[in-house]
Amino acid sequence: MISIILICICLMSNNYKIDGRMMESISQDDDLELDNQLKLINKPPLKTIQTVFGHIVDCVDINKQLAFDNPLLKNHKIQLKPSFQHGRTTLDENQRSATLSIEEDLCPIGTIPIRRTTKDDLIRLKHLSNNNGMLIEEVEGSHFAAVNLNGADRYYGIKGNINTYNPTVASKEQMSGAYISLAKGPSQVRNRIMAGWQVYPKIQGDVQTYFFIAWENKQNQTGCYNLQCPGFVQIDKKFHIGSPITSTSTFGGQQFEMSVAILLDPTTNNWWVRLEDKNLGYFPSTIFSDMSYADEGGWYGRTMTTLGNPSPPMGSGHFPDDRFGHACFIRQMTFQNETRKDIPPEMKLVGIYKDNPSCYDVKYTGYVDKSLGYAMQFGGPGGNCGD
């Protein structure tokens, strides 16, 4: 199923305290190695912004961002905008866009906002890598509620307006999220792109809801979350990848959402990520071993926990009941085939997947109405869901 992707930080171990807990740690030499890693990841800023969330955002020269440390992008010519035209999001007066930004302060022209990576960030990623491996596929303790494209076509794009929530996670070992994804190839050599939101303290360090992107190239054993490794080329100068989502929905109350799209540029074969009708940037074609199109994909809810422990709520924590505003939803679902037009996922084109209906469910009947378009509901309370 869907991969959670972790950057591999090659470090030794001793003892190190992070987020108030004693974790597998590092020697003095390895602490120095962490400092060296930070120097490589954090590029010299032209301006620095302190956010109200406690994160530091650096305004970095767009041509000196981390992506261009990738040897595969040595002679890469940056693409400032896609060659395709894409229509605006269909708005619903009952929904509001989730707030995602670096607040009021903006980066200067020619720079992009990048959240500064800290030593704690690297330690968290190292700890995950040591426990779960570099790339995680069908991890025990993971559960899904999804609408999958049935693989009968070649896919060049996917889109959805994803309802945002802040599900409660009881420990740093738990994760809950919702996202869209496209992938190509058998599991052992799969290439994949994901974009959506998640609550995952082991990655972010707290229990807020965050926007995230991720990619993997299993054949080359490369990939990561957000901008933690050289890969994604950011273009937008107002939004930083991995930003907290400050507006989340409540059961039966105000609903918030974000429009997310992953689209292949037919001219460059770069995979663009769009958020709220803005082109955030792209995954260059050269970082994938084979991603000229996708042969699988879909719209997903997912949770994760450690073996033997309860699973967290998914979405609102409630099962689908046909009342949009109760269970989490994704509306205006579309995909693109070789026509490069937005195509609705009719029932004959998709499959419904839920691995534990007693914990999480998904409901999809195709077209709902003009406002929702093709829409799915998913989620549930979690609990003792098995491994």
TrEMBL record:
Annotated Neprosin PEP catalytic domain residues: 137-386
Range of residues in the leader sequence: 1-20
Keywords: Signal
Keyword Lyase: no
Listed InterPro entries: Glutamic_endopeptidase, Neprosin, Neprosin_propep
Descriptive protein name: Neprosin PEP catalytic domain-containing protein
Lineage of the organism: Eukaryota, Viridiplantae, Streptophyta, Embryophyta, Tracheophyta
